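Before the break, one more example. Copy the sequence into your notebook; we will annotate it together after we see the structure.
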Amino acid sequence: MRENGFPYDGLPSHFNWKDAFADSAQTGWDPQGRVKFHLTPATEIASAGSCFARRIAEDLRRFGFAYVVEEEGPPWLDEKTRRAYHYGLYTARYGDVLTALQFEQLLLRALGRFTPRARYWTSRTGSFLDPFRPLIQPGGFANLDELEDDRRAHLEAVVRAIRRSDVFIFTLGLTEAWVDREDGAVYPVPPGRGRGTFDPEKVGFQNFTAVQTASAMERAFALLREINPSIRLILTVSPVPLAATYAGPHVLRATIYSKSALRVAAEIACSAHDDVDYFASYEIATANGFRPPFFDETGRSVTEAGVASVMKSFFLHYFGLDREKLAKTGEAAPAQTETVEPCDEDAVLAAIEENLRSKA
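Here is what the structure looks like once it is written out:
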C-alpha cells in the first residue's frame, strides 16, 4: 500500500526551524517571508505610530523615497529646530501615536466626528499644550486660540496626507494608556508633572487586550479607506520595550504582554484583509538579539545597526532593493545620529526621575 503524503513535505526551508536557523548563522534572521504587495520608489508612503516609527520614516526619506509629509514646518526654521517642533518626523505633526485606539480617534477627530472634552493642558509657565500632542510645541502655545488654530490645520493635514498616499504604515507601540473617564479620549501620556493636572477622578488607566486592539485597528482601517478607498496598510510592532508600566508586576513582563497582544492584533487585521500586510520589524529585533547590537546600553534606544537590519529587510521584500547598495550610491542623506526631540514615552521617564530627584 502506497504511503500517503505528509502535509509538511515540500514546504520552503524557512518554514522549518532547523533550516531557517542554519540559513541565518552568517547574515542574521530575516523572518519576513512573503509580502502581499510590492512597492516602488514612487509609491507615496505615509506613516504614524510609536517612536520606532520615526526611524522607518527617516530611512525612507534618507534614500529619497516618496515619503509623504504634509507638515514640513516654516521654511525659515533650520532643520534642528523643525525636528524639535516635530515637523517632518512623521507624515503629519501628530507626535507619537502609541495605541490603536489613539490612532482611530486621531482619524475620527480629523473627520470632525470626535471632539474630546479636554481642549488643552497648561504648563508650569501658563502656556497651553495640546493633550494629544503634548511635546510637539516646546514651551507650549502662547494662548488657546493659537493652539486651536494649529490643531485645526494639523487635522486638515492628516486628511490631505491620507488622500494622497498609496500606503500607510502604522507601528503599534503600546497597550497601556491613560483614558479620559468621561469621553474615552486616549492620551499619549498621562497629565501631570508640568503637563496639565492629574485627577484620578477624570483620567484612568487602561491596558488594552489583543481583541480590543484588533477591533480599534479594524475601525481605523475602515476610516482610512473612507478617506482613500485605494489605500493599503502595513502594520508593524515596535521592538522598543516599555519605558515604564502601570500594570505591573514587572516592566519586562508588561513589555512582553504588550508586544504579544499587539502582535496578535496585527495578525488578526492582516488575516482579514488582502490589502493589509505585516512587516516583521519586531521579530527581526528579537530574533537577532545582539547580532548586530540592536539596542544601546540603555536597552531601549535602537542603534543605527539595528535600524539598518530592519530596513534592509523592508527594502528587500517590499521594493526588491538592496539597502546596502542604496547607502553606497553617495546620493543618500546622512543618517540622523542626533535625536533632539524626545519620544512621548521619554516624557514619562523624565517625570518619574523628577519625582525621584525631589525626594533625594
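The chain has a mean pLDDT of 87. The longest strand covers residues 167-172. Try to locate both features in your own notes.
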